[in-house]
Amino acid sequence: MKICYLGAGTWGFALASILASNGHDVVLWTRNPEHAHELQKTRTHPKLPHFKIGPEARFTNHLQEALRGAQVLVESVTSSGLRSVFAEIGRVDVPIILTSKGIEQGTGFLLPEVISDILGVEKSPLIGCLSGPSHAEEVIQNFPTSVVCSAYDPQVTRLIHDLFSTPTFRVYPNSDLNGVCFGGAMKNIIAIACGISDGLSGSDNAKAALMTRGLHEMRKLCVVKGAKPETLNGLSGMGDLCVTCLSSHSRNYRFGRLIAEGFSPEGARQKIGMAVEGIYTCVSVRELGRKYGIPVPVTEATYAIIFEGLNPKEAVKSLLMRTVKEEHL
């Protein structure tokens, strides 16, 4: 198939490599002309320098060129930039596969809702997503990976499964699109908190508590977006939470760790040099929690550290001083 791929970061490059290896004609688009030229010339990504993409892939900074004749759109742009990119594209009548993870600020929209809003429908049957525990650095090396796909239309779910499945990249279908997208978004906030915790103490006990209570936070809040809490027990919830909170590959984890080591939030973001989705999503989740009266203490503490200058040690202290209630699962 002819595939237009929006976004040529490391994740886009890794997934486009899968599509190319499966024999599809892939055109990767990036706004940066120098980046597009270098990718086309070297066929390697500067942050993944040891891996070349197959000849089925091409690169361009011209959006209309990438869209021309496309039978499928796949995106890996930032969640904050998603609306502007698709507003520029306008109406399309081909399947749209989302691989970014986030929740829009202000609206509280999950990313499929953002695209549906642009297309002027409630739930566009064209939209699906691919999510789950997967680092680009490992996917590009064909390390065994399991992810999950979902869509409003089961035929689009099947399409995503067929496009991306390889012997080492296992794609599980799931009918709960909102749950899959919500888990992939909110786990980034918990990863920032775990990075901060590790940077302060390195305590496995503390990180286990943050991950477990963070998952509880995710399960409580997801229902306001029409998601099933049990979906978060799977790959897009607990699976993605583990890989993001436990690995130095995770930008969100590294961002939190740098803050604990004394970097300002902006300094930590600049040092990483790539999008840290949890920063953006932290605002959205805090807005949702307050709108619906659902406590999200880990998110609130992470927000206060990033945006209000709260000392990380004080944030930990405030979490530990919360009233203990009976654990409900």
Describe the structure concisely.
The protein is α/β, with parallel strands linked by helices and 329 residues long. It has helices spanning 10-21, 33-42, 63-67, 82-89, 111-119, 136-139, 154-164, 177-200, 204-222, 235-245, 251-260, 265-272, 277-292, 297-307, 312-320, and strands spanning 2-6, 25-29, 44-45, 48-52, 57-60, 72-75, 96-98, 127-131, 145-151, 169-173. It has 2 domains: 2-177, NAD(P)-binding Rossmann-like Domain (Rossmann fold), CATH 3.40.50; 185-320, N-(1-d-carboxylethyl)-l-norvaline Dehydrogenase, domain 2 (Orthogonal Bundle), CATH 1.10.1040.
Keywords:
N-(1-d-carboxylethyl)-l-norvaline Dehydrogenase, domain 2; two-stranded antiparallel sheet; 2 domains; 329 residues; eight-stranded mixed beta sheet; 10 strands; alpha/beta; Rossmann fold
Largest sheet: 8 strands, mixed
How much helicity do the residues have? 40-55%
Might you state the CATH topology name of the largest domain? Rossmann fold
What would the principal axes of the Cα set say about the shape? globular
The end-to-end distance, rounded to whole angstroms, is: 44 Å
Quote the beta fraction: 5-15%
Beta-strand segment tally: 10
Q: Assembly state here?
A: single chain
* Overall tally of structural domains: 2
Segments where pLDDT lies below 50 for 5+ residues?
none
Overall pLDDT confidence: 95
Task: Describe the protein.
- This protein is 51% helix and 14% strand.
- By secondary structure, the chain is of the alpha/beta class.
- The chain has 2 domains: 176 residues, Rossmann fold (3-Layer(aba) Sandwich); 136 residues, Orthogonal Bundle (N-(1-d-carboxylethyl)-l-norvaline Dehydrogenase, domain 2).
- The strands form 2 sheets. The chain has an 8-stranded mixed β-sheet, with helices on both faces.
- The model has no long low-confidence stretch (mean pLDDT 95).
